[in-house]
Design a protein that fits this description.
This protein has 439 residues and is an alpha/beta fold. Helices cover 34% and strands 13% of the residues. A hairpin with a 2-residue loop joins strand 10 (374-378) and strand 11 (381-385). It starts with a helix and ends in a 17-residue tail after the last helix.
């Protein structure tokens, strides 16, 4: 205890002597006696409506050596460069319900649940679940079209601009350590070394302050630690373009821009710690949004998702691939390339390593409307159909990655419970643990 008191005292006075303001000097003295913290987990729940045409997405290969690259319109093709981070969860089912009302089960596990998984985890972690959407809702919306949260449906925030102002108020620092980083960036290398040496002889283990000082050195030397990612309002080109054009976020033709804005925003919020638990709802279960903006002048729900002929199903595969491509381009790629500025346990670890993205839909095959494992016949050939459920990211080291898991007689509520276990806040109302997916 006396050693810690002395360490704090020395660090505090040395920081003052370097011209650092009292509040920040106090912050540094606290970091000097703090061990590097546990890995900072983030979670994103990403809903894509109305299933997939299964012949266009089923990965090929074995459970631990597979590919998403297929002939034709491979829906999961955009995930190929990141497949080592992806788990395919085959065979889970929404027990006791099929068709569009299954959207009520997607985040709650069953009709009796009074809380959605994102909000249950966020509440247990002492944070807030942020709900975003790319949802041009010009038609009737009811409880069979919304994701159910806290026992009722809500409309997600449809405007990335409004969400930006909420998550990143102009001129504020969103990370708990951002003020310290801002001050440390102004120090010379000699001053950084002086500060580091102040407590080096007092600690057998690397302190949190040491980790931050090392990150500052790397950044000042032209490195890419990502340590400056959390200072002030971030640069988000897609959000800025929407704001500059005053685009109507509920206009169908603006859907790609809105989705890009929400994904950019979610990525930066997770990087900086402005939000740890988010969900993004794309369209709604029976969406009639026309996809003419990508050269397919058909509505998403009917006729596109209802197609049984090969040409129509290929078009639907292309439509659904649109979401995975944007998810990769605007979020996964960013998280995979960015050093985690909040991870003081191992500088250089990527944000995607500390993130878990759950991608889901309310039905399996779009035309068949099943919500469980089954057989779909196409041109006289049987295809095994299952809910298109994926996890992407390392989950702060708590989940296995790069696997195909095949389940029998298990509900997706078990997966929801397992996600809460990975978050460190198990929520038994959802189901039972799937131990084989945990690291």
């Amino acid at each position: 205890m006396n050693r810690k008191v002395e360490m704090k005292r020395r660090t505090f006075f040395k920081a003052l002597s370097l011209g650092i303001a009292v509040p920040l000097a106090m912050r540094m003295s606290q970091l000097a006696v703090a061990a590097p913290s546990a890995r900072p987990l983030r979670m994103l729940f990403f809903y894509i409506p109305h299933g997939l045409p299964n012949e266009h997405f089923n990965p090929k290969g074995t459970s631990d050596n597979f590919t998403f690259t297929m002939t034709g319109e491979s829906v999961w093709g955009p995930l190929e460069p990141y497949k080592q981070h992806v788990n395919v969860m085959r065979g889970l089912e929404y027990q006791g319900i099929n068709n569009h009302p299954a959207i009520r089960w997607t985040l709650t596990g069953n009709e009796n649940a009074n809380q959605s998984i994102d909000r249950a985890i966020a509440k247990a972690m002492g944070t807030q679940a942020i709900a975003l959407g790319a949802v041009p809702y010009q038609t009737y919306w009811g409880s069979d079209n919304y994701l159910i949260k806290d026992g009722t449906w809500i409309r997600p925030e449809a405007s990335p601009v409004a969400a930006m102002d909420r998550l990143f108020p102009s001129g504020t620092m969103m990370s708990s350590d951002a003020e310290f980083r801002k001050a440390a960036l102004g120090l010379t290398e000699k001053e950084l070394e002086t500060l580091a040496q102040t407590h080096k002889d007092l600690s057998r283990e690397q302190s949190k302050l040491s980790v931050h000082l090392d990150a500052i050195r790397t950044l000042k030397a032209g490195g890419t630690t990502g340590v400056n990612a959390c200072m002030g309002q971030p640069s988000l080109p897609s959000v800025a373009a929407l704001k500059a054009s005053n685009a109507n976020v509920l206009e169908t033709n603006n859907l790609p821009k809105v989705l890009d804005g929400q994904l950019e925003l979610a990525a930066q919020a997770m990087i900086c710690g402005a939000a740890r638990i988010l969900s993004i709802q794309n369209l709604w279960a029976t969406s009639d949004v026309n996809f003419g903006f990508m050269g397919i002048s058909k509505n998403h729900h009917d006729p596109s998702s209802h197609s049984w002929d090969a040409a129509g199903r290929a078009e639907y595969a292309r439509i659904q691939r649109f979401y995975y491509q944007h998810l990769v381009d605007k979020l996964i790629k960013t998280l995979a390339q960015t050093d985690d500025p909040l991870d003081t346990s191992a500088p250089g670890r990527k944000v995607l390593d500390n993130t878990l993205i759950y991608v889901f839909s309310e039905i399996a095959d779009g035309a068949d409307h099943n919500a469980n494992k089954g057989t779909v016949w196409l041109d006289g050939k049987p295809y095994v159909s299952y809910l298109p459920l994926l996890t992407i990211g390392g989950g702060a080291g708590a989940i296995k990655t790069g696997r195909i898991f095949d389940f029998e007689n298990r509900t997706h509520g078990d997966l929801l419970f397992t996600l809460s276990e990975i978050a460190g806040v198990p929520q038994s109302q959802f189901g039972k643990s799937i131990t084989e997916v945990k690291a």
